[in-house]
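Hey L., structure's done. Input below.
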Amino acid sequence: MDWRLKAGIQKVLELVPGGGRVHHLMQVKAGALSKFGDECDRRVDDWALMMSHLRNTNVPVSGAVMAEIGTGWYPALPFCFYLAGAGRIHTYDLYRHVTPRMVNALADRLPTYATRIAEASGQAEAAVRARQASLQAALGRGASIIEATEGVVRYDAPADATRTGLDDGSVDVLFSNAVLQHIPGPVVEDCLREAFRILKPGGVTVHAVNCGDQYAYADPRVHQLNYLKYSEAAWRKWNNRFTYQNRLRAIDFTDMAKRVGFAVELDTSTVLPERLRQLDEMTIDPMFTARYTREQLALTTIDFVGRKTQARA
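Output:
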């Protein structure tokens, strides 16, 4: 699909009553949710990579209190962390996208990943499978997420992740997956500031950010740097709440984390030669060339871990 057609349809849907429901149906019929198994596999891959980041920065998950920014269509990462032995997981979203049908579909697929979750988390596979079976059975009986997870996973939506209401220093890990690129820059910084407040000393915030043009997934004729052609005024024509893109670069996210007090212990951003070639073949809007180096513009993904090493003065 031409990305401009997709953006135009979404622009209309955000303005009409019931547009959100129509957009969800479109996702189920022809979008990311139309191949749920593949989509779920990718989310579990994301979780496994996040687990490796936590291991590499010596952060235990078993018994941990965790919080997530942006649940999405279904609580894939919270359920994986639940099976991995997390003690409590608060997950927040601006809109209430999660439905019982999607949650049950996720629970029914989780047995596929039990061995992988056990290996990644160091949990006994028998314990992971027992927890998964209990979760699946409870959801099948109509239990809520919090009931089915025995109080561990707490889904809160609509909610504001800049004001979680959690106590100071009460959380071990705050995380997000493919979310921060969809939040206005000042709000991202507010989320990180809230993360700093609620994390315990030594706690970490870990984020996977896809900071490339999301429309490239719908239209193979454009690549992930395409949106750098457009001025802020021109981009407003295409930006919308269903595929909102802040167009921040990887360095912006780590700079914000440092500004609010985090020590960045992991930064996976790597410049790909293909992206540099694509960049050199484009006309970039001056607002980007004035702020970023060529390499900073070419980066389209970053995972980073920030640690709260001390209380902010």
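The chain has two domains: 35-159, 168-211+248-313. The beta strands are 65-69, 88-92, 153-156, 171-177, 199-210, 263-267, 301-307.

-- N.
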